[in-house]
Amino acid sequence: MQEKLRIAVQAKGRLNEGSLKLLEESGIHLIFGSRNLVSPAKNFPVEVLYLRDDDIPQTVAYGAADVGIVGENEVLEKKEPVEIIKRLGFSRCRLSLAVPQQVDYTGPKWFEGKKIATSYPGILNDWLEKNQVNAEIHVINGSVEISPGIGLADAIFDIVSSGSTLVTNRLKEVEVVATSEAVMVRNHSLSTTKQAILDELIFRLESVQRAEGKKYILLNAPNDKIAEISAVLPGMKSPTVMPLAEEGWSSVHSVIDENDFWEVIGRLKKAGAEGILVIPIEKMIF
Ligand code: PRT
Ligand code: ZN
Asked: Of the chain's two ends, which shows fewer C-beta atoms within 10 Å, N or C?
């Protein structure tokens, strides 16, 4: 039987959907059984192992999985010897210290002698040491944000995304200690076969990532305007220009960035472009 690359993903929670979507977009179609712990893929030598996110760094470090998709915060916290090979751009958040809104925060020294509730004692401890602050770390799993309100702690150190949980609990963010996003981690020693599968997987992921935020644009233009229009279109190389059946007109194709989209469209119209079509791009391979 052919060797398979085993990928650990979160079984359920915030990372699950993004992780599976990324694999799907990379052409890895999983076969889901009922209550299966492992899903093989239909057409690619990988299998997916479902775990709690907290267990992913260790599972990859010990080699029970070869690769994992996990929040960077868990990698930072667990300090397992895994290597981050790709930043995946979803589940972005930050790890911050927050204090009750009425506190007059003066800087890191405010935390001296205080009690801080968190599920991330390792990262917090590093920050306290770096800032030479002695504080008491109170480890709790879940509902960290309610601790100051019920008198369990003076402050919290937790994940913040929109910030609304802090507001609801009358807390304010005072220090951003780390930022995080979903990352792909790998075990240090993979067999040659597994390494080759991983290389192919990374190649596919990069093709998908490259296409994100990019649009394919087609437009018609009179031949004497093509130079001006081409100057507006950055594209991958120079735009593709093809003659139309109608004499003196061409069709121009290129790739544009979604961020510059409306500005580019405006300039193209001004330069004489007509019949502009914009199409999503699934993958980009150079
Ligand atoms: O069961 P398992 O252990 O696998 O899951 P879990 O409950 O530990 O993790 P889960 O699914 O909640 O989160 C998985 C990962 O998503 C985290 O490790 C982060 O990398 C990332 N992530 C991104 C977040 C958030 N955004 C987030 N907002 N994880 C948690 N939150 C929570 C946070 O703890 C706080 O309670 O949401 C609240 C804050 O959100 P805002 O938007 O109100 O600021
Ligand atoms: Zn967890």
From this structure: N
